[in-house]
């Protein structure tokens, strides 16, 4: 069991930097929580506070009903896997993995049994007698994880564990972490700045910016209902397109005018616009590249970049000082320099208040 609660947690460093602000999160047993956000947004600091490697300046950390603010890291019963693996270079793989058990005075036979069991799960049986310097990056990463698994902690904390691996190995290790999560039936808290990792691994994703939580949601929810312009632009590749516009009512219907077009809003969105008093106000319209269309009418523009990816093609246009990305079929006859019209799937647009940048 591992239920972890952070209540209004702050981290202020001595030099005056407030790295984490008012962080409140409820982690349930067996959640796979991912902290994601741009560099410096406070992901690692939050993780380190949970691990007990960084002191909490204000607020409370509760693990399984017990306040943990002042409990030593080693007494929190959680294991941390670091980006740089932090293996002991003079010890063999087996010794590295057994280290925590030795500290707990677990008998040798039992230690060996446990290490072999975990080595099997991770495919490390062949390298148990090697030293870390004789391992590949992926193997080192597995040993670092093995060392954590052997301890059977309440929760696994991982700080960018895959960032030192090449793209192919990252994908492979990502799948292995997914498998481990299913097999170990444990709570995982994982830090990354990579949105693909966040979306594929997390059951609950925490998007952070400048020390503050922007949204806590499942991957689907994050993608389909981003809470604000920042989340909308951060999750999704190429990023969501944004257009300035204004909401108006005509003959009982709600329209948004943007890029010279009048778009009638679907009934549920129209209701929200009315309820949130957005009529007559400036709004930001968000449309994902896959929800854009090349059509007979819409905004006429010249294709500035043509990107054929095999399974699909992206067309990029200059518009209103920014870039608009449109996903289209791989076999599109359109090429760079062509003048075409782009348009939106009207039922797929996202609306945000222009001032608060919050979702309407
Ligand atoms: P990255 O993805 O680059 O690792 P992050 O989101 O994990 O970033 P943190 O490492 O948590 O960010 O840092 C958050 C902020 O706190 C940054 O502005 C960083 O400079 C600052 N910070 C981190 N550690 C310290 C420290 N020991 N003393 C002072 N400031 C710190």
TrEMBL record:
Keyword match Disulfide bond: no
The answer, when asked if Cell membrane is one of the entry's keywords, is yes
Name all ABC transporter domain ranges.
4-235
Q: Which SMART domains match?
A: AAA
Specify the superkingdom.
Bacteria
Which controlled-vocabulary keywords does the entry list?
ATP-binding, Cell membrane, Membrane, Nucleotide-binding, Translocase, Transport
User: One MF term from GO for this chain?
Assistant: ATP binding
From the Swiss-Prot or TrEMBL record, give the protein name: Sn-glycerol-3-phosphate ABC transporter ATP-binding protein UgpC
Q: Which organism is it from?
A: Claveliimonas monacensis
């Amino acid at each position: 069991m591992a239920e972890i609660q952070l209540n209004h947690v702050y981290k202020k460093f001595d030099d005056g930097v407030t790295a984490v602000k008012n962080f409140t999160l409820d982690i349930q047993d067996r959640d796979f929580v991912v902290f994601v956000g741009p560099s410096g947004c406070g992901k690692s600091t939050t993780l380190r506070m949970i691990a007990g490697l960084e002191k909490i300046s204000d607020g409370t950390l509760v693990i399984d009903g017990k306040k943990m603010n002042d409990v030593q890291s080693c007494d929190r019963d959680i294991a941390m896997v670091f980006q740089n693996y932090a293996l002991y270079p003079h010890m063999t793989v087996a010794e590295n993995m057994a280290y925590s058990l030795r500290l707990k005075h677990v008998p040798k036979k039992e230690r060996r049994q446990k290490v072999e069991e975990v080595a099997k799960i991770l495919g490390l049986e062949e390298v148990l007698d090697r030293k870390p310097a004789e391992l590949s990056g992926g193997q080192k990463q597995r040993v670092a994880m093995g060392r954590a698994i052997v301890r059977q902690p309440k929760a696994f904390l991982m700080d960018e564990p895959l960032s030192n691996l090449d793209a192919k190995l990252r994908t492979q290790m990502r799948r292995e972490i997914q498998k481990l999560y299913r097999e170990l039936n444990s709570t995982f808290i994982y830090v990354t700045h990579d949105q693909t990792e966040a979306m594929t691994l997390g059951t609950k994703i925490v998007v952070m910016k400048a020390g503050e939580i922007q949204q806590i949601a499942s991957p689907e929810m994050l993608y389909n209902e981003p809470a604000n312009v920042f989340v909308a632009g951060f999750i999704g590749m190429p990023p969501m397109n944004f257009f300035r516009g204004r909401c108006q009512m005509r003959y009982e219907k709600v329209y948004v005018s943007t890029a010279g077009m009048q778009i009638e809003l679907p009934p549920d969105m129209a209701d929200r616009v009315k309820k949130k008093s957005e009529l007559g106000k400036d709004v930001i319209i968000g449309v994902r590249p896959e929800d854009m269309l090349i059509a007979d009418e819409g905004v006429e523009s010249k294709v500035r970049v043509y990107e054929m990816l095999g399974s699909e093609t992206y067309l990029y246009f200059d518009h209103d000082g920014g870039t608009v990305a449109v996903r289209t079929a791989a076999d599109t006859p359109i090429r760079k320099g062509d003048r075409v019209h782009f348009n939106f799937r009207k039922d797929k647009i996202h609306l945000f208040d222009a001032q608060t940048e919050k979702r309407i």
